[in-house]
Amino acid sequence: MFSAPAAKPNHVPDPWVAYASGIGVPWDLARVVHLHRRAGFAATWTEIQRDLRDGPEASVTRVLQGKSRIDGNVKDFETVSAALADSAASTAAPDRLKAWWVFRMLFSPDPLGERLTLLWHNHFATSNLKVNDLSAMRRQNEILRQYARAPFGELLRHVIKDPAMLDWLDAPANRKEHPNENLARESMELFTIGVGNFSETDVKEAARALTGWSFKPDGFHEFLQYHDGGEKSILGRKGRWRGDEFVSMLLEQPATSVRLAKRLCEMFMGEQAATPEHLQDLAKGLREHQLDVGWAVERILRSRAFFADSNLRSQIVAPPEFAIGATRALEQFEPPPSTLLLAEWIARMGQDLFYPPNVFGWPGGRNWLNSRALVARINFAAALVGGTVRYPAAPANVLELVERAVGGAEAGPGIRFLSHLLLGIEPPNSSQKALQSAVGTASALTAGSARQVAIILLSSPQAQIG
Amino acid sequence: MLTRRDFVKQATLISLAPTVPTFLAQTARGASPSKDDRILVVLQLDGGNDGLNTVIPYADANYARLRPKLAVEKKRVRRLDDAMGLNPVMRDAADLFQAGRLAIVQGVGYPNPNKSHDVSKSIWETARFDPTEHTSYGWIGRALDNGPAPKAGGPGSVLVGTESVPVALRGRKSVAAALANLDDMVLANSSKPAALATTDDSLLGFVQRSTLDAVVTADRLQQAAKSRPDASAPPYNELARRLTLIARLIESDFGARVYYAVQTGYDTHVYQRDTHERLLRELSEALRFFLDELKRSKLDDRVVVMTFSEFGRRADENASEGTDHGAAAPLFLAGTKVKAGLHGTPPDLTKLHGGDVSSTIDFRQVYQAVLQNWLRLPAPPALGGRFPPLDLFGLADA
């Protein structure tokens, strides 16, 4: 449950003060849709209606606890998931490992957990292009998921000592007589304190502290014979530092909490929705809570800032959110879409899972929308609704969704419903012409025109924003 | 008079109406051929190319001393003069050099070299040293901001590849497109979105502009694909494939002034020889193939290729038979209009700075020459100042 923040002097407003429904910030469709798009992969109409009834506290609690999904649940989810991952790893087929993760995003009872796993995949961006070992990539992915909400130190220690990362950043090559700076540099620049907070000397000295870190077939191993036991000076502190002590030093640096706060705000807050006060306050709170990510996520998701108008529809949705979100909102569960094809579409939209472009991950935000990615998004809308994302191809029954929700097929209410479901807003003005020509002179939607309406809405500029 | 292709082009753009706003359709009608526009192709060697094993100071005994395992044997080096030579795998590049189609600028870098891939890449891409400027606009994007608008609302620059558009191409007004292959750019007919040309800076305005750009770009590329189906087979590597696509776009008068491709893998910390030589071979073959393709279509006089890498590598090898992040390195400019030969001075291996080759030429001097004397775009706004241009284009500048 949410605990009230510590009392603050009354002249300093708490930037993360809790949200409550009220004038100007009603608990409405836009906010329910917002919650599920920012903290998951969109909701079905049934889930949206339930949350509208139950109010923000219960709705956010369900999201945090991984209990928000009513529809599209898979029996024995974890067993099926493990079987998929096993077979992907044993057949050395990267496409199947990507499909495994897409399966989890689509069907996991805990979509927030998958979103956080994506966040950490980007933060600790490791590419199979170099690692070339699907078992190692899978293990890293499971670590990211298992510790996704843990105190950041636990996550960092597990990831950094896992073979995929050690291999990715050349730890085995880092030995006393010939230090390799890769792991030392990226640990500081990318994983914790960030650029500007360390010097080239710190990199050299930290690399010495990390000498001897490597792995054997069964996991992390520290080869003491390769370790440089001499004195090092890292971030102004002298000692015979070893790798674990170096990691502890990084976790103690205030800059780490700031960087972490930034990462979380990038994920949950839109462009310009988080002020420097939000960042500083969240960083301070993180320091007071052992960098507990779960604490910070709850603080953000319960806040007025998260549900403020300025934070609604203020981000470009990332490829998995776009693809999985549309699939879930349209309830494409039976027969289920091909997760292999979904993963392929997501890659075409610019996010090739397990293959980030470099150590910095995907730049995100407005960078998602280059021409190729937009063409992929637009074509995906047609493929999803047309049913070619499934084997065998089966068009989406959009009309049935309309009739179930609206109680009829009347064109006006039907279009409004689909816009609410897919975009969380009224039908965009810029799409009116296209919508009209899709419906023609008929007063009711048909199976075909309902699909066309869904395609128009999903390929509209408004659909790229969430 | 309208040629058939002009007609097709005009017809498809107009057929997009009402999705493509009137002013664009009008521009399509009025588009004049840009056959004399000069084009720049930028090749980013991603990861930090080992300059010393690319353009090799084979006559300097220090080279072999610094690289007991990685030095290329003197007799295998492809000699350019009595001091410098190319890596033996770069036969095609050596041929280009002999044919007067390759310029090599030695010792290019900047003061106080940064060893972070990201920071150094940002410096090269933005021509700015202040980190707060590293995510906004790039040197090419800014240069295109200050040039004439590309025809028919097309992009000013195109990234060919699967990467995100690099910051180098991002501008305030100019638009960078990205594509990996032509198939990716075919829009399903049922889903052409309503795209509006807006000028507001809101997120929605941005998405609307990007959507419009995607629709127009898709249309233009379908025309490009039809214009030249008979391309000779490229050497089998990804870079050559990307350069071939760039050649098709140029041949189809696509209208972009700058094309950009990335060759990844140069971050060779461990057992570098095989990897590095494979990359250099691919680079050299792809470059030759690309220039020959353009020669066949008589467009080689309009195109210059420039390579860059975020840094060179340390002068001495590390104990894993690799090299760590370094500083200055040579870069290439290729094309019929470059002043071929070796520019600048060979690396001084007796005066290393922190183990690195020091820069003798500021990268912005190269950019200044490329912008001012090749693309004829104002350089100061792109580079944040005026730099003495290197003499890279000889009499063609006049």
Strand order of the largest sheet of chain A: 1-2
- Largest protein-protein interface: A-B, 58 and 51 residues
Q: What class do helices, strands and sheet pairing of chain B give?
A: alpha/beta
Query: How large, in whole angstroms, is the Cα Rg of chain B?
Result: 22 Å
State the major sheet of chain A: 2 strands, antiparallel
Helical fraction of chain B equals 25-40%
Shape of chain B: globular
Largest sheet of chain B: 9 strands, mixed
Radius of gyration of chain A: 24 Å
Average of the residue pLDDT scores of chain B: 85
The overall strand count of chain A is 4
Structure explained in plain terms:
The complex is a heterodimer of chains A (466) and B (398). Chain A is mostly helical and 466 residues long. Helices cover 54% and strands 3% of the residues of chain A. Chain A has 22 helices and four strands. Chain A has helices spanning 29-38, 45-65, 77-90, 94-107, 111-123, 128-131, 134-146, 152-160, 163-168, 182-191, 200-210, 243-252, 254-268, 276-288, 293-301, 319-329, 339-348, 371-386, 398-406, 411-423, 432-439, 447-458; strands at 213-216, 219-222, 232-234, 237-239. In chain A, the strands form two sheets. In chain A, strands 1-2 form a two-stranded antiparallel ribbon. In chain A, a hairpin with a 2-residue loop joins strand 3 (232-234) and strand 4. In chain A, helix 8 (152-160) packs antiparallel against helix 12 (243-252). Chain A is globular. The model of chain A has no long low-confidence stretch (mean pLDDT 94). Chain B has 398 residues and is α/β, with parallel strands linked by helices. Chain B is 33% helix and 14% strand. Chain B contains eleven helices and twelve strands. In chain B, strands 1, 5, 6, 7, 8, 9, 10, 11 and 12 form a nine-stranded mixed sheet that branches. Chain B has a three-stranded antiparallel sheet with strand order 2-4-3. In chain B, helix 1 runs antiparallel to helix 7 and helix 4 crosses helix 9 (272-296). The longest helix of chain B is centred in the middle third of the chain and has 25 residues, at 203-227.
